[in-house]
Design goal:
This protein is mostly helical. The chain is built from seven helices and no strands.
């Protein structure tokens, strides 16, 4: 069931199988904290978060590749290096967000879902989504200004 869900999302059976394995590894690592009744929901949530993270990484990498190819002849190597480092810093900032904030950020900024759609998907109020997004953006600014 989980594998089929991920095949539908990924359109790639091999990646879906890998994601299922990773989700069950996380469940195994956290089995002390997860009740048997919650195991199915937990595995689905872990798989969904891993999927969103992977999707976001793929899109960020593709964006960087596209921009680098377009500008490779026009820009000097120093600019390209700084641009790549900035992309890595953004990815690091996203990775450091708390799970709920990261999930809302990725659904809104990468999947292009509205706050209302995200609220419906996650089963929380739109105000909760707005607050999570506000905190996510604030946290990302703080992280990016650290370096």
């Amino acid at each position: 069931m989980l594998r089929n869900f991920l095949i539908y999302k990924f359109r790639d059976a091999e990646r879906a199988s890998d994601m299922v394995q990773e989700a069950f590894v996380v469940l195994w690592q956290n089995c002390k904290n997860v009740t048997p009744e919650m195991a199915k929901a937990y595995v689905f949530k872990v798989a969904q978060n891993k999927f969103l993270n992977l999707l976001e990484r793929d899109k960020v990498q593709q964006k960087h590749l596209d921009l680098q190819q377009d500008k490779s002849n026009l820009e000097d190597p120093e600019y390209q290096m700084r641009y790549q480092q900035y992309g890595e810093r953004i990815q690091e900032a996203i990775d450091r967000l708390p799970e709920g904030q990261r999930e809302v950020f990725l659904l809104n900024r990468i999947e292009k879902l509205s706050y209302a759609e995200i609220a419906e998907t996650l089963g929380v109020s739109q105000k909760a989504i707005e607050k999570r997004m506000s905190k996510a953006l604030k946290k990302m600014r703080e992280i990016l200004e650290e370096k």
